[in-house]
Design brief:
The chain contains 14 helices and no strands. It has 281 residues and is mainly α.
């Protein structure tokens, strides 16, 4: 564990002794801060507008109108920005030739990979930690958010971000070009994001086929009813579909296990890629 922490600390110092961390964190805070401010102003204006209408006023909820939109926007920002965080982790080591030196030190490839991953995870925690000031700021007003669902949503955002870092680290291990690593990570994450749209399209296609008499007869004879559809199976692979319950403040172990499994799979495959390159080298 000492070696893992040493490598993680090396990565953290690399981040914060270069402009990368400050640019990423700065852009993230500007965008998230603006989205929070715009949502809060809109909520305040609606409260003033319908203050004399008790029915409408009671329907206004700060969690639904301010906090939840913020988390949805953070996911989009992670999709765009986390590939920049992970692009150099292993690609830069290979390009500069320090990968051979690093992996010949008295540390295992698993320790190197885990240390680099924890270094990137620290930067992610810093980014999210600063945004905690947003719901705390609302607590100072009369419109107090429900902190229980908010903290559950933060857990979901953290798991989502950690999963993105795992995928990005895996792609970074496959190339020595940082730009290729960033674009490849973005493409992989976008595919895991867009799989929900594919699932919806597949569900609509199957539904249209089932409306035909021929397919309906064949389905009754051979497929049976009540089983999972293709759309259901594809939705299980979507990184955004598993976040929806977190966003609503619902903690479901199925979604936690999915993100942890994706993280473990990404780190395991990264180790396999690194080991294969060491063997070929």
């Amino acid at each position: 564990m000492k070696n893992v922490l040493a490598i993680a600390w090396r990565e953290i110092r690399t981040y914060f002794t270069s402009p990368l961390a400050y640019v990423v964190v700065g852009v993230f805070l500007v965008l998230s801060g603006y989205i929070f401010y715009a949502s809060l102003v809109r909520f305040s204006n609606l409260c003033l507008q319908y203050g004399n209408n008790p029915y409408v006023f009671n329907q206004l909820n700060v969690n639904d109108m301010v906090v939840r939109p913020l988390f949805g926007s953070i996911l989009v920002m992670f999709l765009l920005m986390l590939p920049v965080v992970t692009m150099r982790l292993l690609a830069e080591e290979r390009r500069s030739g320090t990968a051979e030196l690093l992996f010949t030190c008295p540390v295992t490839s698993a320790q190197v990979i885990l240390g680099k991953y924890l270094g990137a995870a620290f930067l992610l925690v810093v980014m999210l930690g600063v945004t905690l000031s947003y719901p705390l700021l609302i607590l100072t007003t009369s419109a107090k958010p429900d902190m229980g669902p908010t903290l559950v949503a933060y857990l979901g955002v953290l798991l989502f971000g950690l999963a993105c870092l795992g995928v990005g680290l895996l792609v970074s291990a496959m190339t020595e070009n940082q730009i290729v690593a960033a674009v490849g990570s973005f493409g992989a994450l976008l595919m895991l994001w867009a799989i929900t749209w594919i699932a919806d399209s597949a569900t609509m296609t199957v539904a249209s086929l089932m409306n035909s008499a021929t397919f309906g007869l064949w389905e009754k004879l051979h497929l049976g009813t009540g089983g999972p559809t293709l759309g259901d199976l594809l939705n299980k692979l979507s990184i955004t579909e598993h976040f929806q319950d977190f966003r609503k403040g619902l903690l479901d172990t199925e979604h936690v296990i999915f993100y942890l499994s994706l993280i473990f799979f990404s780190l395991f495959m990264t180790q396999r890629v690194v080991e294969s390159r060491k063997w070929r080298g």
